[in-house]
Design the sequence.
């Protein structure tokens, strides 16, 4: 469009001054008579245009202008003409196609331009003529939306594929400097140390945060084993269900905590488990309150957080436990039913009918764990123990759930035993010291 206007203007000039022809070879100042002002119209003017039109143009003719004739030719064809004065732009491994074809003028004007670097249009707008990057513009990268293509690309050539200015990590850290410090965090996601493009698109993406695939598909691309678990659909943890985002719990880049967790494990889980949650017709207990308000907290929570016992993803057992534990107040009285507890505690506490060492819950040498648990209709451990944290010593619960009734336990702990008074029976006392 611009070229067309230029030409017609030159035409007008030619026919306006038929009588004032220039003398042969006196082209020292082509704008002296008000001609060819156009070539110098804009700032910046190409330096040789300022001084010497004949650096690039030549003629055999004696007179100029001549109506209907074209007396001037270029001293050389573009790009050889440009390379007379400029370093070669076609000697690196990757050469931009229009540069390779010598089409310098697809982006530059030879004379003067209102844009920096003699560009036809401002900055990266010249790129848009041939490259439409709007194809999936849901979330468009800042510098791309602003046509700042040269922040990442060299317009001419590069030793790096994709005409890139810098290599993978440096390319992005050039602006995202805050991400550089992150590399020193205690726990760094391996792909984050190598570059950003394994997860992000550089220009735009239909997904939030410009990731190149939707999460979790992005993650499954490298973490197949996690996907297999999800597909089983048996007892999938709420926030882990298909479509939910892994970064509810994980940071995709770095973390101060193991397993790239967003927070200290306990705090992370309490983000959601600080209230009751309805799951079908079951109400999931508020665990935060049980731990925070407890007089006695189960040791592994203090030491290792929640994954000492729970699998945050998809485990084989009720309550997302890493081994078996029954649902409800009753179960079959064998150690396998309570396998979860015996991952850490000794089975003998429920197996030996008579003992003086397997458990403190005995009357003399009569094992009261055996009495309650080692029977056809066994009481589950949770009938007496509050697993996360409890009011009484030995993790004894304040209340025993019975249907919709919560019976008070009224447990009293003594040096040699204890007593309780529940709705199950009258007050009963046990003592480890033989009467
Ligand atoms: C650095 C080299 C160079 C210099 C110096 C130069 N030109 Fe040009 N000029 C070109 C090129 C290349 C073209 C061809 C443009 C095209 O094909 O689009 C051109 C084309 C032209 C045209 C044809 C119409 C147009 O604008 O495309 C005129 C007229 C012209 N130049 C006048 C001048 C005048 C007058 C000067 C000095 C004031 C000058 N040129 C200095 C390179 C130069
Ligand atoms: C007769 C020598 C000569 C020729 C031929 C020549 N240039 Fe230049 N060009 C210069 C000089 C001198 C400068 C100013 C150098 C500087 O500022 O570093 C310059 C500057 C430039 C710039 C940078 C402008 C800026 O703002 O920094 C561009 C782009 C450019 N030339 C493109 C071309 C193209 C395209 C051609 C071929 C059509 C060409 N040049 C032909 C001498 C030439
Ligand atoms: C695809 C568009 C495009 C083509 C084709 C192109 N250039 Fe450029 N050129 C640019 C852009 C954009 C800049 C500004 C670079 C920047 O912003 O860093 C530039 C800058 C320049 C500069 C000044 C800065 C530098 O890198 O030295 C020169 C000289 C130059 N080009 C010459 C040429 C020559 C000669 C050709 C043909 C062989 C050519 N260009 C072809 C887009 C192009
Ligand atoms: C005159 C048309 C034209 C303009 C203007 C243009 N390009 Fe290109 N570009 C091409 C062509 C043709 C290809 C080769 C396409 C292909 O291989 O599919 C290409 C390829 C590319 C590639 C891929 C190179 C590779 O090795 O994969 C990049 C990156 C690129 N251009 C960036 C730019 C940038 C940045 C600008 C603006 C400075 C720009 N282009 C302006 C025509 C153009
Ligand atoms: C934040 C850095 C960045 C910016 C800004 C950027 N690009 Fe790219 N571009 C890349 C990377 C990285 C690639 C991929 C190179 C590869 O795969 O080898 C790429 C690839 C390309 C390609 C070739 C592949 C494709 O997607 O078609 C073109 C063409 C291209 N860019 C044009 C542009 C244009 C035009 C702009 C400005 C509107 C721009 N780029 C801005 C980083 C960027
Ligand atoms: C020229 C500077 C620049 C470069 C280079 C750059 N970015 Fe950006 N990036 C930005 C700006 C500016 C934003 C917008 C920041 C904001 O909105 O807070 C941004 C935002 C982002 C976002 C967030 C998008 C969102 O939706 O929140 C991601 C992801 C991103 N960049 C990734 C990359 C990757 C990957 C690279 C390397 C290929 C890269 N950036 C290179 C400047 C840059
Ligand atoms: C393993 C995949 C992966 C890699 C590698 C990766 N990212 Fe991300 N990035 C994500 C995901 C997923 C999100 C969105 C969730 C989030 O914010 O945690 C994101 C979010 C972002 C954001 C927006 C939110 C924020 O944290 O500011 C920016 C910017 C960003 N990434 C830049 C980068 C840069 C720069 C690199 C390379 C140094 C990089 N990413 C490498 C997956 C990745
Ligand atoms: C490009 C491949 C790749 C992608 C994509 C990827 N990861 Fe990774 N991830 C790895 C590698 C490699 C490791 C380190 C080796 C390992 O522990 O398996 C790792 C480790 C991890 C770890 C730490 C394991 C541990 O125990 O310390 C977590 C958690 C993780 N990734 C989650 C994610 C999440 C969430 C996403 C999606 C946002 C994701 N990854 C996307 C390759 C990837
Ligand atoms: C509710 C929080 C939570 C969510 C949501 C979650 N994770 Fe995890 N993830 C964890 C915890 C906690 C661990 C540490 C488990 C352990 O110590 O056994 C972990 C460990 C991992 C590990 C390393 C150990 C392993 O099992 O291989 C990977 C990889 C992983 N997660 C990937 C993912 C992916 C991919 C997603 C999304 C599909 C995701 N996670 C969603 C909490 C979560
Ligand atoms: C983003 C919220 C969220 C986070 C974070 C979260 N959970 Fe959950 N969790 C839920 C929801 C919702 C349910 C109930 C719905 C379901 O499981 O289908 C649930 C259920 C559970 C259950 C009961 C499952 C059952 O079958 O009754 C356990 C156990 C559990 N979560 C443990 C954890 C642990 C351990 C963590 C920390 C690693 C954690 N959760 C982090 C939301 C969360
Ligand atoms: C010592 C093993 C152990 C540790 C450590 C542990 N839990 Fe549990 N958790 C259990 C057992 C056993 C159950 C099933 C019995 C019950 O409901 O109390 C359970 C049940 C749950 C439930 C489901 C409750 C319901 O009503 O369905 C949630 C939620 C839960 N735990 C969250 C957590 C959180 C959060 C942490 C970390 C602060 C944690 N757990 C630490 C063993 C543990
Ligand atoms: C990950 C290991 C682990 C698992 C699984 C586990 N515990 Fe514990 N438990 C401990 C540790 C460690 C202690 C503190 C040391 C001790 O008293 O043995 C403890 C203490 C206790 C105490 C208090 C002991 C006292 O006298 O104060 C009770 C009661 C208890 N656990 C019951 C259970 C029950 C019931 C289960 C199964 C639902 C279970 N534990 C599962 C590790 C575990
Ligand atoms: C009828 C109530 C009741 C049931 C059911 C029960 N316990 Fe206990 N448990 C207690 C009492 C009371 C103590 C405290 C004994 C004391 O005074 O030292 C205790 C103590 C413990 C201790 C501390 C070490 C010891 O044996 O003294 C562990 C571990 C323990 N129980 C695990 C379990 C497990 C595992 C189950 C389920 C298989 C279970 N309990 C079922 C009442 C019960």
Sequence:
């Amino acid at each position: 469009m611009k070229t067309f206007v230029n030409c017609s203007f030159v035409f007008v000039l030619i026919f306006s001054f038929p009588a004032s022809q220039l003398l042969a070879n006196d082209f020292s100042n082509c704008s002296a008579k008000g001609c060819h002002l156009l070539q110098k119209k804009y700032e910046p003017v190409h330096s040789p245009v300022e001084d010497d039109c004949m650096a690039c143009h030549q003629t055999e003719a004696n007179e100029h202008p001549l109506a209907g004739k074209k007396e001037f030719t270029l001293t050389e064809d573009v790009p050889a003409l440009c390379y007379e004065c400029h370093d070669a732009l076609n000697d690196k491994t990757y050469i931009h196609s229009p540069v390779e074809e010598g089409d310098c003028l697809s982006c530059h004007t030879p004379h003067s331009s209102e844009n920096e670097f003699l560009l036809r249009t401002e900055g990266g707008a010249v790129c848009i003529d041939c490259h439409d990057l709007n194809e999936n513009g849901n979330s468009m990268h800042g510098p791309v939306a602003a046509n700042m293509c040269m922040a990442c690309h060299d317009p001419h050539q590069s030793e790096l594929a994709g005409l890139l200015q810098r290599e993978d990590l440096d390319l992005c850290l050039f602006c995202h400097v805050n991400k550089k410090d992150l590399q020193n965090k205690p726990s760094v996601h391996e792909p984050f140390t190598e570059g950003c493009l394994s997860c992000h698109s550089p220009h735009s993406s239909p997904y939030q945060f410009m990731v190149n695939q939707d999460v979790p598909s992005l993650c499954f691309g490298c973490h197949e084993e996690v996907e297999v678990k999800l597909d089983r659909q048996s007892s999938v943890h709420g926030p882990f269900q298909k479509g939910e985002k892994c970064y509810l719990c994980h940071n995709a880049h770095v973390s101060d905590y193991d397993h790239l967790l967003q927070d200290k494990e306990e705090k992370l889980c309490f983000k959601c488990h600080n209230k009751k949650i309805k799951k079908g017709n079951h109400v999931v207990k508020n665990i935060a309150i049980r731990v925070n308000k407890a007089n006695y907290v189960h040791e592994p929570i203090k030491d290792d957080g929640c994954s000492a016992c729970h699998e945050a993803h998809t485990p084989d057992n009720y309550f997302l436990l890493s081994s078996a534990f029954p649902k409800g107040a009753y179960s079959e009285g064998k150690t396998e039913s309570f396998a979860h507890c015996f991952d850490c505690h000794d089975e003998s506490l429920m197996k030996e009918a008579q003992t003086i060492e397997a458990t403190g819950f005995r009357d003399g040498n009569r094992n009261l764990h055996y009495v309650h648990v080692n029977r056809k209709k066994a009481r589950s451990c949770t009938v007496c123990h509050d697993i996360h944290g409890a009011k009484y010593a030995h993790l004894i619960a304040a209340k025993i759930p019975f249907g919709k009734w919560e019976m008070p336990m009224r447990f009293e702990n003594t040096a040699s035993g204890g007593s309780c008074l529940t709705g199950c029976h009258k007050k009963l006392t046990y003592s480890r010291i033989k009467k």
Residues 124, 127, 131, 133, 141, 143-144, 147-149, 151-153, 161-162, 164, 197, 202-203 surround heme C (ligand 5) (CB under 6 Å).
